[in-house]
Amino acid sequence: MNSWCNIMNEKNIVLGLVVALILVLSLLTSTIPPNIPSTTSTAYSTVSSIATDQTTHAAMNAVNGNATEIQVGTFNTYSELVEFVKSSIKPKQPLLPFARGDVVFALDVVPTPTPLLMLESSKSTVAPATVTVPTTTAALAKSPPEYSKTNVQVEGVDELDYVKTDGEYIYVARDNTVYIVRAYPPDIASLISKIQVDGMVKGLFVENRRLIIVYFEKQAPPTITYTIVKENIVVPPPYKFAPKVVIEIYDVSTPESPVKIGEYSAYGSFVASRLSNNVVYVILQYPAILYKDFVPLPIVNNEVVPPSEIRYFCRDYSYVFTIILAIDVENAESNEEVFLTGSSARIYMSKKNLYILSIKYPDYREVYVKALDIILEDAPENVKEAVNKIMELNVDEHLKYKLIAEVVSEYFNKLSSAKRKEIMENVFNELREFMREKTVIYRFLINGLEIKAEAKGEIPGKVLDQFSMDEFEDYFRVATTETIYEPYAPPKTVNNVYVLNMNLKIVGKLEGLALNERIYAARFSGTKCYLVTFRRVDPLFAIDLSNPREPKVLGFLKTPGFSEYLHPFGDRYLIGIGRAADKYGRIEGLKIALFDISDPENPREVSNITLEGLGLWTPIFRDHKAFMINENKSYFAVPVRGRIEGIYIISISNGKLLIKGFISLESPVRTIYIEDFIYGISLWKIKIVDGTTISEVKTISLA
User: Fold this and answer.
1) How is 513-570 classified by DSSP, letter by letter?
2) How confident is the model at residue 467 (pLDDT cuts 50, 70, 90)?
3) What is the residue-wise DSSP string for 589-606?
4) Overall number of domains in the chain
5) How does pLDDT run across 57-100, given as a tens digit for each residue?
6) pTM
7) H or E segment at 24?
8) Does residue 317 share a domain with residue 208?
9) Most buried residue among 136, 349, 569, 609 by CB atoms closer than 10 A?
10) Residues 26 and 170 in one domain
11) Could you tell me the residue range of the domain that residue 163 belongs to?
12) Which residues have a Cβ under 8 Å from the Cβ of 54 and sit 6 or more positions away?
């Protein structure tokens, strides 16, 4: 699109037509629109989105007339699934030049599921899963000291991290090992045990004396063989397409001797994981690809997922198998749901809903056909006939559309300059909405182990991260940055805020904020939304969402630099962690800012600390879980790397930021507090300091 827009001027409009058609043509062969199987061959179940109160129900009816129903299809046979995938993607060359592995995929026969096997990691240093689990009643009855928890977005919804604490012990994951450290009180703090797994640890959860370890298993052929039905065709085993993710659960009532009580697994790329109400949710994506006319099926808990248990929505855009695995960490029960959706890297989860976001890519075949129809609308019959004859040729699709472009360009070159310009403006105007950047949103109702598809919608633009989304009072709010293409002009960016009901229909919107800037940070807080955009200065927007139908800007503040992470402090302040910059937008170092948002119409920066140096950065930029705050004692921690390695402890006093102290620590990743002590954590050591004086108390090696 960039090339098209840049050349679309009076001088080069003929060239623009040819380039436009060839550009679309080049994309045609890599993206083919999905074709939904007919209802005669596919079983459907209807899911209704139902309002939970009269106010929300009225709002839904006002927008849509009544509640939206979405159709979720399933497959009767493996053949149906294969044809469905074939219709949505163009077959590509095999990933491997020859068949390999011991997995054979059946056409219409799916193995009967067998009970889950509890498999012990080969390098685990703990007792096998058959050991009797000690009771946790006494341990749970003991009240832990005050301590910091993982910095999460939604209270009550924990997020996977490689450092966790329960107030007495700290759990640190590095490579294939989880280190368990007695942390409190500091005078007896020490490394007490380790757990090794057969792979690379992704992260941990700790809940009610349960330790949950999520890791990528070392690549090894699975012990699964599919029934051969029609052809003895061997395809590469699943690990050639996606890693194997394993979830192990340990009872750590006695942390010196952890006991493994369960193991679960699935093949797929890791997307995200959450824990709520003792249930761990793991979201993975497994590629929906063709290999010699076969589609490798997802494997969960060492069993193939039958086609009848794979669901899809009525319309999507290039597919992956999205696996949602739910595990109850108390009773070791589990459930999985598999959906064909668009590829995703963003999720948001509340206590009752899971939202999965996917970028919507335009269907370039339709783009080409629409453009061609407009260009040929007034063309002579002989030109139309020539195009129709080419369309009927039994030749490669790429060659076919190239021949069409040659015929059309010859006709187009003979038109007057004014007519050519008129046609191309018509093409662009017709396709403007069709080519608009959009994000598809799927909403799933979660209730313990139950996972149910509820709604699907879409919004313009792309989402920065999870903090650009929020659920509040049966509304889902999203902030996006959108690139807009116009004829005779370079692309421009704008920023938008959308409010959707539980049917994922837009009920309110605020579009066009901060022209040619993009969102660097976002934070929703009740009926307010705060956005940071940047080009040369840092505009902080305060947006009112109290009326979901009419979002509006209350006020904004411009200040040099920009924030990449925003964190509320009480009801009055907003902490910003970002970059210092001069008036030309040139980066000068790290900036920690305190904004007074008590009057949203006039937000003010009341204090800031600048840590100078181009080589200085903080892990908070990439991972919000690196941020720690103790609101009761009014301080927070900012780990830094570069010319200085360690953790700054910043206090807030009477609306001012002050450096309380500095913990010197190489490659810091996390900070926690337990009572009056602060624990600076790297992947190799834990340094304990006094929370008042920031003087060192003890260092524990993780070796």
Assistant:
1) ESTT-EEEEEEEETTEEEEEEESSEEEEEEEE-SSTTS-EEEEEEEEESEEEEEEEET
2) very high
3) EEEEEEEE-SSTTS-EEE
4) 2
5) 333 333 333 334 577 889 998 889 988 888 776 433 333 222 22
6) 0.81
7) helix 13-28
8) yes
9) 349
10) no
11) 103-360
12) none
